[in-house]
Amino acid sequence: MKIAVLAGDGIGPEITGQAERILLALRSDGLKLELEPGLLGGCAVDAAGEPFPEITRRLVKEADAVLLGAVGSPKYDGLPREKRPEQGLLAIRKELNLFANLRPAILYPELASVSSLKPEIVSNLDILIVRELTGDIYFGQPRGIERREGQRVGFNTMIYTEAEINRIAHVAFQAARKRKGRLCSVDKMNVLECTQLWRDVVTETGKEYPDVKLSHMLVDNAAMQLVRDPKQFDVIVTGNMFGDILSDEASMLTGSIGMLPSASLDDRNKGLYEPIHGSAPDIAGKDLANPLATILSIAMMLRYSFAQEEVAMRIEHAVRKVLAQGFRTSDIYEPGMKKVGTREMGDAVLANL
Amino acid sequence: MKIAVLAGDGIGPEITGQAERILLALRSDGLKLELEPGLLGGCAVDAAGEPFPEITRRLVKEADAVLLGAVGSPKYDGLPREKRPEQGLLAIRKELNLFANLRPAILYPELASVSSLKPEIVSNLDILIVRELTGDIYFGQPRGIERREGQRVGFNTMIYTEAEINRIAHVAFQAARKRKGRLCSVDKMNVLECTQLWRDVVTETGKEYPDVKLSHMLVDNAAMQLVRDPKQFDVIVTGNMFGDILSDEASMLTGSIGMLPSASLDDRNKGLYEPIHGSAPDIAGKDLANPLATILSIAMMLRYSFAQEEVAMRIEHAVRKVLAQGFRTSDIYEPGMKKVGTREMGDAVLANL
Ligand SMILES: CC(C)[C@H](C(=O)O)[C@@H](O)C(=O)O
Ligand SMILES: CC(C)[C@H](C(=O)O)[C@@H](O)C(=O)O
């Protein structure tokens, strides 16, 4: 199992550092794996002049899975668009055909009071958002800023083909089947033809999954329902743009985005795994970042790319124990708990593994 | 002052009915106004075969302001796109050039515990969302569903011109100036060129408002920050699509969307005023709907279209008193309060006026 480790920017190196310690411990335990470091994002711009250099491209093509820390920093805001760190992320998704982004929003009972929502609204929250990741307005052509009749005009194209919708729908239906059997597809069919097609195709695909209860919701309503009563959802499937917004909203419901991992998969279980939080340049290098989302991303990697369900669960249990023992980085700290830094949190997980 | 009243579908007639009673009471008090009923949405489809008939078009063109109840019902889901009730709403916005949608998200102290968020997170919440309403992917061309290389493809165009961004930015800066002087512009500039132009033009416009503190936020982060700490915002300005999502999310933070009015304005203070909630077909005709959002929409009308600040405040005070007296429709009901229907709530406001 060859794993490319792209630490990225900001707190990236610190949090992937702790995840690597876990992986190395599992290797001593007998798991066959190789770690290969690579550059993506701002650090790649600094070192190689572009956010997704050819050498990284080759590395991730050959790897069986990719672990990513986080990319981006306001430091690069002034660069031309194609040189910005986020372009590296978009390029790697497209290059590896990572069309299925799985983002769980789980509230750990130990952290229930960290949420800004009332405990009864979010306790035991367990939603999975399936976001299409290689299509939509993120990649649609034509796009740009032009001068027309004496003024600037900015434009982008939202576009989905039947095949793109169909394949992400299958991923979502299959995920729902393994959970509570409910899938809510989110669109804006009352305004956008593109998402009318989305609704039509998801409905058609649903005929193959009579055991899954399919419903549809408009995106504005979904944004409301996530706040009003998030536990009504099991699996949500939506396009790239709406998924970007709703998955961030959903993760914040838990109050602990430092805890949430994600997987981005192609059609053969190759995947990129990363915490859903950003590169947090303000706390970088200070041993303050929460490494648990990255450590839980390894669990997802072992589950989805390497079919090592048991090892995945070992990691997840270790994280639960660490929370039960009261270890907290500052993002999830509450009075009475043990405040620890990035490295000590890694120690605690290792000790429980 | 000629006011077109478009009751619309579902609970529309009931809630505009109560608002009309208030307007008529103000007329007896000396306010010069005329009410003219018209059809929009599903009721217009039923009566005239289209959601925005020519006769309604003429009525609203001549009126100084429009009061709208709500449009839409699943009953019309099977109709071709151009006949659906929502198309009436989009068409009237475009026809009257109502580019500036003002949506306050206010939490009334009396209703603090109705919210799904913790009271300390939302108490005294007072945000104004300024949403561009006649551009963006809502109206962009080309759009449609086509067959290409043997499969269906759906597409829409997100597009903004410099002039469109500039004029909504002015509205937002001026609103911020009258409030706490802070404006947050929301975009997705790291992915979408269209919104890169948005950020550039808003920044340029901001030079004319050195007294307003301008900040920028990515839409995914904004969706999170609204949940994490909504009180960090004063005025938010954004495009039509993001505004649709974020304004619904923001209004749900208050837990009482039955309380929230909205104004959609052109560049000469003509406006359409409507509650932000929908047509709620499930409770239509049952005297259950909360008329307060519609009544507060009249207050906005008197303020923005007719410069009757004093009368607007009289209505708003009456609504506050009614809440203080414990009157509650079922959407905001809590034990210990007086549960009332739509009409009784109207009575209570009238009594306090
Ligand atoms: C950094 C950005 C391009 C990216 C996205 O919008 O997809 C991020 O927000 C995410 O959700 O992974
Ligand atoms: C009904 C629909 C077309 C409309 C919109 O998306 O603008 C509604 O959601 C709104 O926000 O007024």
UniProtKB/TrEMBL annotation, chains A, B:
Keyword Methyltransferase in annotation: no
Q: How is the cofactor bound, as the UniProt entry phrases it? A: Binds 1 Mg(2+) or Mn(2+) ion per subunit.
> What Gene3D superfamilies does the entry give?
Isopropylmalate Dehydrogenase
Positions of the record's site feature: Important for catalysis: Y138, K188
Q: Which Pfam families match?
A: Iso_dh (PF00180)
Catalysed transformations (reactions)? (2R,3S)-3-isopropylmalate + NAD(+) = 4-methyl-2-oxopentanoate + CO2 + NADH
Q: Which GO terms describe its cellular component?
A: cytosol
Q: What PANTHER family does this protein map onto?
A: 3-ISOPROPYLMALATE DEHYDROGENASE
What name does UniProt use for this protein?
3-isopropylmalate dehydrogenase
Q: Which gene encodes it?
A: leuB
